Amino acid sequence: MLTHVRLDTRSPNDFIKILNEKNKNIQEIFLSKISELTKTVDVKVMMGDSTVTSQKTFDPKQVMDYFQNINNNLKDWSLQDVTTSNNEDLRRIFTKFEVMVGNYLISGHISIQFHVLLYYKPEQRVIDCQKELSDIVDLTKNKEQELSDNSDQFVLNKLKERGYKDFDHQKLFEILYEKDELREQIYEEIEKDADVDFKELSETKKKLFNELDSLLIETYQISSVLIDDPRLISGEEGCLCTFDLEFIKNNNREGLFDPRKMSNDIKENISKRLDEFKLILKL
Fold first, then answer.
1. What is the Cα–Cα distance from 124 to 24, expressed in whole angstroms?
2. Which residues, at least 6 apart from 14, have a Cβ–Cβ distance to it below 8 Å?
3. Is a pLDDT exceeding 50 seen at residue 81?
């Protein structure tokens, strides 16, 4: 009977059934811990339209600390660092670990996946920044439209001041096309005459956007359910706890092996490793 063992997969083998039962117990403890660590609290936040409302959130750092504590207690396991991945509004905290038992490799993966929702801090400065930005947008829009509507005439007047007279619009564009420095000077003078410093307004707008970014607050949303790898990859919220058992031959992982050929000592030590992990989950 050749098999690849992802614990929780059905098997007629008695030992694999025992491991599956242990795995089920581990998952139940893990889910209970994650449910406790991701209990939500209400926080006040501000919407984009300045409405203040209440939003539920939890603290991901508690989960990171819990995962780190698990790693710290897996003394002779090979470990991956506790990692947070970002993908727009989807975030994942995870770690992986493995240990050899004879020629068999036990590898585990725990993670949570949750969504991030952005709001503003409920502060007056958010409203002030939005008002300043709105005023800048309106001012520049009106001035740019005014310059656009009268651009030809503005340019003609500036050229006449420089002695260019009695030419049509085609000639106007030829002059501007050929004389880069003249063109830049004329447009700088036109913007100056418009009583609007577009460069300064642009810098102010950039600073206001940066300030608004600094006033953002993240809230976190998760479902306290166990999910599997496909659901994790598809972006579902929840937590994952999986174990795989593989046979190592010539430093290669064998996808299939016969659990009936495992010695009693190997079986006992594999069981002890899972029991050890279960105890660490409760710390």
1. 51
2. none
3. yes
